[in-house]
Amino acid sequence: MSYYWTSKTLKNQRRTQNRGLSLRLMVLALVLLAGFVVLGFSCRSSNSAGRSRLPDADSKPVATLRESAAEPEVFQPDNVFTWTIGNGDTLSAIFDRFELSRNAMYQILAADEALLALDVLRPGHILTFTLDEESRALSEMELFIHPGKRVIYHRVNDSGFEYEEIILPGVWDQELLQGEINGSFYLSAIAAGLTERETATITDLFKDQLNFSRDIRARDRFQVIRSRQFVEGEMTGQSRIEGVRIFCRNRLHSAFLFEDGNYYDHKGESLVRAFLRYPTQQRFRVSSPFNPARRHPITGRVSPHNGVDFAMPIGTPVLSTGDGVVTRVLNHPFAGRYIEIQHGGQYLTRYLHLHRPLVRRGQRVKRGERIALSGNTGRSTGPHLHFELHINGRPVNPLTAKIPMASSVPRDKLTLFNRRVGELVALMEPAEEQVARTASFEARSDSI
Ligand SMILES: [Zn+2]
């Protein structure tokens, strides 16, 4: 429990109690307050740690959210601790602060090898530690990422933990954001209410057909359907761009997100360039297939294999399977040196146990570009490359998943796709304008 919540709870208590006019009630309130203060301090000291400053602005929404849920937890048992991640916090520093064993931390990191959720702790994420009441050993750790996503690491036996990922679908609320170009597209999009990240997603989608600094002029118009995720009324911070139209002088540029996680224009042509199926030039033997129910070859515990392993000699060039931006270049005690790449749309790839990365975080890479040399780092039974593909935040089998290999919506899905485009366009414009405008723009863009 953090000191911040305790003091906020006290303030609420004080406010409520002061509303009563009776002196007896006031006295009762003071007695209660004294009780809470004593309790609050004893919790703090028994935890041997507590954030002594208010959480920074970034973490406030989460703290507020948890505050209401956590209020009854003023009486939280002394074997449960909560910590809100602040800037610069590391897992090992947090474990030291709570005097938790390093051994337990490595066991949790071993369980997290398949997920790598603990590698990027962000301000506002919340860790909850539960100790065994008798042995006082760590029995469970929860990572709260946002109201729609938590990961729980449970102790299975003396030598290890397993993870459980709790993902709530929530509700996705669609909204139309639109504007005219005034200055750059970037500034106009931000002024219309889009975030930096969403704006980057849009410029990325059109990068093959539109030069945003040269082709876009003042008074050109844009429309964006964005959806944001809510879980039990709370915004999770997750958003998706579902449809975009940019009216650029006499041309219509459009992008619509389809059920396969790919973006297509209004005629069904893919905007995300095709992916490579394999992350290497040569084909190598699959030494361990994708298997969400696998038993780990070294520990024997159930440990999902969220990727596919290719046996290959150390130093084999590893290729990015699609265009994208490098989001992680990290070293993990079990995954070894690894790279993560976010591709346009809803795709993400990971490359583990590398000998040497050849790219840095934030770098743009092309499909087929050499990003690393394969290796045998981390916990590994021999030289190999572990390759993962995630679609919409879920790992899928990279050898069989539907990925943009072709350049347009498959013929048998065209009716479904056109219906989806119709729905999104209907949100963008009143019906009577829609027919005329789309028809005239289509006619013009067909002729170009
Ligand atoms: Zn593997």
How are the SSEs ordered, and which strands pair?
Blueprint lengths: L2 H16 L4 H25 L12 H11 L9 E5 L6 H7 L4 H10 L14 E6 L6 E9 L2 E9 L2 E8 L3 E10 L4 H7 L4 H10 L15 E11 L2 E15 L2 E7 L5 E2 L21 E3 L19 E4 L5 E3 L4 E9 L3 E8 L3 E11 L6 E2 L4 E5 L9 E8 L2 E3 L17 H15 L2 H17 L1
Helix pairs in contact: 1-2
The structure holds zinc ion.
Description of the molecule:
The structure is a single chain. The chain is an alpha+beta fold. The chain folds into three domains: 3-167, Nuclear Transport Factor 2, Chain: A (Roll); 171-274 and 407-447, Nuclear Transport Factor 2, Chain: A, CATH 3.10.450; 286-396, Glucose Permease (Domain IIA) (Distorted Sandwich). 26% of the residues lie in helices and 31% in strands. The chain has nine helices and 20 strands. The strands form three sheets. Strands 11, 12, 13, 14, 15, 16, 17, 18, 19 and 20 form a ten-stranded antiparallel beta sheet that branches. It has a five-stranded antiparallel beta sheet with strand order 1-2-3-4-5, with helices on one face. A hairpin with a 3-residue loop joins strand 15 (336-343) and strand 16. The protein is globular, with a radius of gyration of 26 Å. The termini are far apart. The structure holds zinc ion. Zinc ion (ZN) is lined by residues 288, 305, 307, 309, 386. Zinc ion (ZN) binds at residues 288, 305, 307, 309, 386.
